[in-house]
Design a protein that fits this description.
By secondary structure, the protein is an all-alpha fold. It has helices at 51-54, 67-70, 74-89.
Length: 101
C-alpha cells in the first residue's frame, strides 16, 4: 500500500482540528466596520487661500495627516494635499514649526 504524502492542510488526518499547520484565523467572524463621517461634507470646496480650514489637516509639526486619521475620501485627500502644498509655497502655511523639540 502506498503511503500518502505530507500535506499541511491535512496533517495527521485530523481535518484542521488542533492542527498547528492549519491557516490561522479562518473561523473568526468579521465585525462590521462603522462608516466614518466625512468632516469635509459632500460638496465643500477646498481652497488654498483659507489656511484656517487647512490647519485641521496638518499636525503640530506641519506634516499632512493621512486619510485614516482625518476621515476624508481619497479625492478630497488629494485636493487637501495639493492645497496645503500650494499654501506652503505662498507662505500661508509653515513647512515646519519652530516648536519641534
Amino acid at each position: 500500500m502506498r503511503q500518502q504524502g505530507f500535506s499541511p492542510n491535512n496533517a495527521g488526518g485530523r481535518n484542521g482540528v488542533n492542527n498547528p499547520f492549519a491557516p490561522a484565523g479562518r473561523n473568526k467572524q468579521r465585525t462590521p466596520l462603522k462608516k466614518k463621517n466625512n468632516p469635509m461634507g459632500e460638496n465643500r470646496t477646498i481652497d488654498y487661500l483659507d489656511p484656517k480650514s487647512l490647519l485641521r489637516f496638518i499636525n503640530d509639526q506641519g506634516k499632512i495627516l493621512p486619510r485614516r486619521i482625518t476621515g476624508v475620501n481619497a479625492y478630497q485627500q488629494r485636493q487637501i494635499c495639493k492645497a496645503i502644498k500650494y499654501a506652503r509655497h505662498l507662505a500661508l502655511l509653515p513647512f515646519v514649526t519652530q516648536d519641534v523639540r
